[in-house]
Amino acid sequence: MNIAIVYASRTGTTAKAAESMGKMFEEQGHQCRVQAVADADPAEVSQADLICIGSWTKGLYFIFQHATRDTMRFIRQLGDLNRRLAVVFCTFKLATGKMLPRMAKALEANGAEVVGQFQFRGAHPDDKFISFAKSLL
Ligand SMILES: Cc1cc2nc3c(=O)[nH]c(=O)nc-3n(C[C@H](O)[C@H](O)[C@H](O)COP(=O)(O)O)c2cc1C
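Structure tokens for the assembled complex are given below, as produced in the milestone run.
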């Protein structure tokens, strides 16, 4: 599978998580490109077989959690995804609220099929993600 991972990171945690996710996908035999949201081209990313979009959690820790504005803008710029597979992820400290479902909804509004939502407390993908990466054909 051709996989694109696009992330928003303020202090590097989400960037590290995205790189680790990319390595895990590659270990399973997939091709993967990992890019910061500022560097990624939506037209190019929208051609991937699996599109993974991640952000650090921005909010008031217990409420108002959301992805960064750049992340949500990037999702809208992806255009018609025509049933392409997608994953949303974030890194956080305390709680993520409705952030991931909102990111998923925005991708679904573009026609994507969201097959995974992952949240990592820190830079390391968890067992749930590892199982997902292994299950991907
Ligand atoms: C302004 C600000 C707001 C944050 N709000 C939340 C929050 O609402 N919930 C949470 O769990 N973590 C929150 N965090 C913690 C970060 O999301 C977390 O440390 C994340 O892993 C940082 O990722 P990065 O290193 O890629 O920027 C906040 C951090 C900052 C700087």
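Strands lie at 2-8, 31-36, 50-56, 85-91, 113-120. The chain has one domain: 2-135. Further analysis is deferred to the final report.
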